[in-house]
Amino acid sequence: xxxxxRYFGRxxxxxxxxxxxxxxxxxxxxxxxxxAMDGVxxxxxxxxxxxxxxxxxxxxxxxxxxxxCYQNGRRLNEDDILVWxxxxxxxxxxxxxxxxxxxxxWVFLIAPTFKPWANLFDFEEGRRK
Length: 129
Fold this sequence. Notes:
Blueprint: H1 8-20, H2 37-45, H3 49-57, H4 62-72, H5 78-90, H6 98-107, H7 117-124
């Protein structure tokens, strides 16, 4: 976790993968989308996704990009990070992202009980079976 912040590194990795042409197309529509995890995280940091994307494509490290976010958005303290990390573990459970999490779990032919999104990401990245 970059700076102790769940999901941030994954968001940056998706930007890099897309730029190389290695990101599966089913991810493309939600990149930076306001109501998807990228957009929610950018809103929490008070940064613009497109500006963030440009920093990533410049080849900066995850830590440099997080510091850029803090300088151009808002600096998170320990309590902010605690709130974010707890929120993100529940995102997609019973909120506006609920339907999409269920839809994506069926795409992977796994039970829709993988909601919230964090569980599905753990499955995709090999941390959950």
